[in-house]
Amino acid sequence: MDIVVKGRKTEVPERFRKHVAEKLKLDKIQKLDGKVISLDVEVSKEPNPRQADRCDRVEITLRSRGPVIRAEAAASDPYAALDLAAEKLDARLRKQHDKRFSRRGARRISAAEVPAHVPDAATLNGTGATAPKEEPDAVPTKKIGSLEVQGDGPLVVREKTHVAAPMTLDQALYEMELVGHDFYLFVDSETKEPSVVYRRHAYDYGVIHLRTDTMVTESHSPEAGGTLGG
């Protein structure tokens, strides 16, 4: 297995590629997960000068025959970002390794223990949504198509498509912890409908199920009657 290093809208120097090989020891990773299929490192750069302290971002994605493990970090230079992301990856690999060998009979962590096991837990408000960061001054917004952009941009649109098998709620919570995100989209194996698990205030969990209502769909259809556009 090789490490694939690629840049998104930025060049990746050979010196950084060598640093990646030195930092991510394949033999050490394979001891923690012997079913690794691929290891990708993506480097990107934020051109906004107001984010100079977090302008370089590194995302590490490890795919195996088990769940995908992802770790990302941002810093003022790619080497520091790589070090931070590598530390997160190592912690999540060890957690998965320990759980694999002690899954039978092992106790489940409580909601109060989640901050100690899941790094970068976001601050949420009372409704369970991510609390917005406070800005010192109001930033003017402008409309571009269907999107509202603050200040001068830049306008960044990122779209990802993932293929995943249906899973239980318990497995979705487990995989959300592995990737280190505050929510996880999955297909419920019982209802076969898309669902989302997320962290609520005080580190409780929430789940949203999405079901199609044929009556609502028909009421929003142009054939359902009414006038459009005034």
UniProtKB/TrEMBL annotation:
Alphabetical list of Pfam families matching this protein:
Ribosom_S30AE_C, Ribosomal_S30AE
User: Which stretches are transmembrane?
Assistant: none
Q: Which positions fall inside the Sigma 54 modulation/S30EA ribosomal protein C-terminal domain?
A: 154-207
What superkingdom does the record give?
Bacteria
Keywords, alphabetical: Cytoplasm, Translation regulation
Question: Taking the first listed entry, what is the main subcellular location of this protein, grouped into a coarse class?
Answer: cytoplasm
Where does the record place it?
Cytoplasm
- Family annotation (InterPro entries): HPF/YfiA_ribosome-assoc, HPF_long/plastid, RHF-like, RHF/RaiA, Ribosom_S30AE_C, Ribosom_S30AE_C_sf
Family the UniProt entry places it in: Belongs to the HPF/YfiA ribosome-associated protein family. Long HPF subfamily.
**Summary of subunit composition and partner proteins:** Interacts with 100S ribosomes.
Which NCBIfam families is this protein grouped with?
yfiA (TIGR00741)
**Function as written in the Swiss-Prot or TrEMBL entry:** Required for dimerization of active 70S ribosomes into 100S ribosomes in stationary phase; 100S ribosomes are translationally inactive and sometimes present during exponential growth.
Name of the protein this chain belongs to: Ribosome hibernation promoting factor
Q: Which organism is it from?
A: Streptomyces thermospinosisporus
The root-end lineage is: Bacteria, Bacillati, Actinomycetota, Actinomycetes, Kitasatosporales
Which gene specifies this protein's sequence? raiA
